[in-house]
Design a protein that fits this description.
alpha/beta; 6-stranded mixed β-sheet
Length: about 120
């Protein structure tokens, strides 16, 4: 299955999630494969330049988008207290099947999905 969405995963996203997305046909780059020391603004710049949705566990991106007014192709913030990767993966799978992500800041939690337009 080939999927149109392209992703850039932050260093804090588990490799198991990266491997699942690749296996599912998604075009995904992982920051550790590019440069582990890349700062958040540079990560966002790469994601925007390549029209990739950023997947992260880092809440700092909310500040970068909403307070500093940076543009974004789209961001998925996985904000789940449970560090179980399988749990995160199940929630991410549901998100990708049910919601529009491009151009939005999506907060994925155990109980809900919050979508905030960045446009």
């Amino acid at each position: 299955m080939v999927v149109d969405m392209k992703f850039l995963a932050d260093v804090n996203v588990e490799k198991q999630i990266i491997d699942y997305l690749k296996k599912s046909g998604y075009n995904i780059l992982w920051v550790p494969d590019l440069d582990c020391r890349m700062i958040d603004e540079k990560i966002l710049e790469v994601a925007n330049k390549e029209k990739r949705i950023l997947i992260t566990n880092d809440k700092d991106f909310g500040d970068i988008i909403f307070r500093q007014k940076h543009i974004s192709t789209g961001i998925i913030l996985i904000h789940i207290k449970d560090q179980n990767t399988q749990h995160k993966l199940r929630l991410l799978q549901k998100l990708l099947l049910a919601y529009g992500i491009y151009g939005n800041f999506v907060v994925l939690t155990e109980k809900k999905v919050r979508i905030i337009s960045t446009e």
